[in-house]
Amino acid sequence: MGVSMKFTDLDQYLFGQGTNYEVYKKIPEYYYHLGMAYLDKGDYSNAKMQFSVYLQMYKRTPILRYDERSGCIALAMLTYDKTLSTGEKKELVSVATKNLPSNSAAVLQCAMVYIYELREAEKGFQLIRAGIDDPQASDRDVLFMAAANLLPYAKSFPPVYRAILETFKNTTSVSFDSFLTYLIYSQSNPWEQINRNLDFIDCYKSHVLNNMERGVTILEGKGGYTNESKPVLMIVIPQKLYSNLEHEIMQLDPRAFIIVNSVHEVDGEGFTYELEDLK
């Protein structure tokens, strides 16, 4: 492949005295994983050498449109290499965002580099805004929380600031913690909005506990598609009371997601319902 490598301690630990190196040296992934192993050891110097070989080999024969390993190498270099120039940092940010397009952690790290290291805060906020607008982003609430906490600084850039506010206003998949932080930093009277959002759960509990004389369990749920956290309220009621409950829920939140299951029996402390009791 035209690439010369010095055999290192970790190489010898993995492959003995080098007898297997002839097999692995033609595989780009070998150098990537070896580099990551060096990072785990705290040896960035050797890790960088392995990463360099991987990138040279991959550049000659690119296989995929996106190469996650190249993106991860770029993030590792941004984290550990303290000798990078401004131009090198910008190039690594470009590599990371190109190859990890919907990775919220990668987007956030690159945004922080723009904001705090390159002193190009507007570009950092634009990255965050694009991330929270991306429905395919992994663990998008990481970006929502970052956006909420950075709102006071984003005000210096009105277009992106307004875009972030609009996303918060129009999304239904932001966690309660992130939404509260957004309200605190964006509203002139945040506690009025916070109390309004708390009212839904409180009103629902009050209706079920007092008016219907039933219990309610609040679970912590997480969307499989959005990875966003939301409360899940569970109640067991007789069928004849369901229409009343549904009406009350729609009054409190017209966008509420409701799942209805048939129940044969409910056992637990405080009550036991047989099938006849639930009709």
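Second entry:
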Amino acid sequence: MAQPIVYGPSYSTYVRTVRLALAEKSVAYDFRHVGMLQGEHQQPPFLERNPYGKVPAFEHDGLRLYETNVITRYIDRAFPGTALQPADARGLAVMDQAISIADTFGYGAIVGKLVWQRMVVPMMKGTPDDKTVADAIPQIKLTLAEYERILSDMAWFGGANLSLADLHLAPIFAYMSATPEGGDLMGAHPKLGAWWSKMSARESMAKTEPQLARRIPPSLAHGRTAAPRRAPRGREWPTPTVRRWSETVARGQSAAPGRAAKRQPGNPKRSTLARSAAPPG
């Protein structure tokens, strides 16, 4: 059986979720970078994999899939190993609820506003917009409070065992935790904090750490700039701004125009840049 192939940039939270699922199932895979700066996501080779031009895309034994939730469910069903979905209806509902909250309510405020302003804008030598961050905080607090409530006395989102919901939330929480506000936001929710301590320490998180440096000092996280639009659920930003960032920051350099998608083995050894990385998605 051929190894599955994941297409997309390593900095994407949704791409990382797919890679986390593969890592948790101990599945070897190929990881192929999609150069969004060069418009590779809008070129025929990639559009054949996803006609909507969004990442991630996935292939296995001739089957081509897109949309994160579709891909991760396929991974769980297609490969042996520990199940990543609860066996009971209640656990499945909790898992689905947690994923839906992230895509519908959490991602835009956490990644689209807080992480963007505190991490991405400074990396692009811009001045963060404190008002955009302040406007996002109530939505983030509500989202975290709901996760605290939903988690209740469970070890994971769905029950006693790790689920796809945990893998969906983890890349988002990794970025949020790297912002100046992350500590205070998480500190108000002890159950969620305990969950994150366990989740962030998993081997799969180390194996999928994106190539993005954790080098944004809090002193830079002040000022004003425009906020990006919210990404569609289950996808990543295709905007020119993030395309420039994804190449110059997430890859550590700009690729030459027209370069084909870079092929990397699954679970590649982390570079010096990646080892100091903090995750945005």
